[in-house]
Amino acid sequence: MKKILSLFTAAAMSLTLAACGTEPNTKKDKLQVYTSFYAMYDFAREICGDKADIYNMCPPGSEPHDFEPTAQDMARLTKADVFIYNGMGMESWTDSVISMLDGTDVIVVEASDIEKKPEGDPHLWLNPSNAAMEMKNIANACINADPDNIDYYRDRLNTALDKTDMLIRDFTEALKGVSSDSIVVSHDAYQSLCDAFSLTQYPINGKDNEEDPTPKRIAAIESYIADNNIRCIFTEPLGTSTVVATIAADTGCELLTLDPFEGNLNDEDYFTVMYSNLEALKKALE
Asked: Which candidate, 65, 66, 115, 237, has a CA 20 to 30 Å from the CA of 85?
């Protein structure tokens, strides 16, 4: 029977990239960790340090919503010690993977299995409090798979939690004096971020960022921008749709980047990206 850990089921346990390759480490001298996409990969390396080989299944620059693992990916995954995914519908393909792993010794961890899970938007890690809980779940899984290094994983987790606490303080301090609380974003991915820091998002596209808005919707967006004195529209590192660029041109808005941390072409960690997001928010809302 497969093992599935969460923050709660592992609560009784004592509580950066080590490798990012396409070929698993057949010597098994380190923990073998597979992750579903970049955010999970980065959280895993935050916790595992040099004690694990970490393989990110979704290629750099790819949309995790659209990714489908190959037969080779699936075969390699059966040799993992830990498989980490977000859940909440973020990855469309994980149900079949989890079913395939039934009967193996692979520890499967749904990182989003947290207290007070937000509804709807799977990008819950954009709230640093949620990111901290996801990293706790990952640490629990690694401790279960590699108990000889429990103190190492504990120390790595505590360092990460200190950084998330500071991130929350810095966001709260920087955003408490802004003149606006409304942001126009390229797609509906920022509800957790907005909930954490009392902001309101107005998305151009939906959660999957695929279907362009209708002309009626575009007119409503442009009216919202005018009525709320919006000066910037947030786009994303993996691409700007033609519609977003057109709305920016029509309204005279500047395009800024707000990174949902789904995929990162520069191998940046969560904290670097979130502080860049904070600078962009300050510029848009000042």
From this structure: 237
